[in-house]
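ping. complex inputs:
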Amino acid sequence: MQKNLSKARMLSVLLLAGGAVQAADDPITTASDPETGIRSWKYEGNGLGIEFVQVPPDFIRASYSARGLPASVSEAVASRCVFGTIVRNLSDKPLSYRVADWRYLKADGVELPIKTKSEWLKEWHAMGVRFSWSILADEPTFQVGDWIQGFTTMAEPHGSLVSLKVVWSIEGERYEKVMPKLECAPAPETDE
Amino acid sequence: MKRSCRNWNVRQHRKPMNKLVALALLIVAAVAGAADLPPLGHRMSPMSQPVAAPEFTLPDMDGENHALSDFRGKVVMLNFWATWCPPCRREMPSMQRLYEKFRERGLVVVAVNQFEDPDLVFEFTGRLSLEPTFPILFDRESRISEQYRVRGLPTTYLIDRQGTIRYQAIGGREFDHPDVEKLIEGLL
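pong. complex structure:
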């Protein structure tokens, strides 16, 4: 947990932790790519490995456009705070999670759910778009050695700070970890 | 000439990669580079309840249809993938090496691409260090991946000679690792 976490944020984080088994206070490591400036946050503990990587909106636009997806689809995602998310099962037993159980905490203390892959696909399919990928799988069970990656999206402005509560379970044991102060990718300069 | 039989001359005469696609791949590489991507493992997990592999028919790069039942009697490694997926790209050369080692004994590798255009995939495979010679099929609307309940890319299944799914792996793997080869040996 970062040392400069404000008291209010600390209180909120503690409140978020109520009612579930809190993961051990394993460290969260951060990194910044020297060439691109893209930042990432990584945690490994209690059988889970998870990493959040900033995804700039221009990446989403370029990636989706290259797949021939309509602008309405790419803009809906690009307008959000998006993290590339890598989830790994580091345990020797099956691990599962439900994105519907995850929450993010805004700077003002409001706790909100994360839009799941199923919710995105329902919208896309209603638009006649059969694209089923890029968003993080919402209810997988990982066997030993399995891992996956995809976007986690939050309805927050580019550049904002969010804390993210991740919940997972291994053989019925429930764990959670709060990733504090994840910084959404900044808006491209041309958008400002 | 069929794309599946292409050579360097064919590739030289193809249109250059679309700029948008190149940009997207560049940014994918940048984002992927920012993350500490997990090493490719080599474990495939046995299915808790082996199930019959759903039948399908899909076109290859030349538009020719292939059915799963065409490979009945062989061991099939069925891989769901896409070019934008970094671990899919990383594991593909190891699938080719595995295929080269075991195809004479009855292994077939089938890579089912998700959502993408054959032109784009053709360009992509031509740039791999080891170009795939196994069938690449196109599941443009992800209907087959839905049948197989694929949660994320890449996902790989090992199907035995009787058409039953025996092992699975979610996430990239080094498929020519001795651990995987041992599983293949057990099914052949």
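The interface with chain B takes residues 31-33, 35-36, 38-40, 42, 49, 51, 53-56, 58-59, 62-63, 65-68, 84, 86, 88, 130-134, 136-137, 139-140, 142-150 of chain A (CB under 8 Å).
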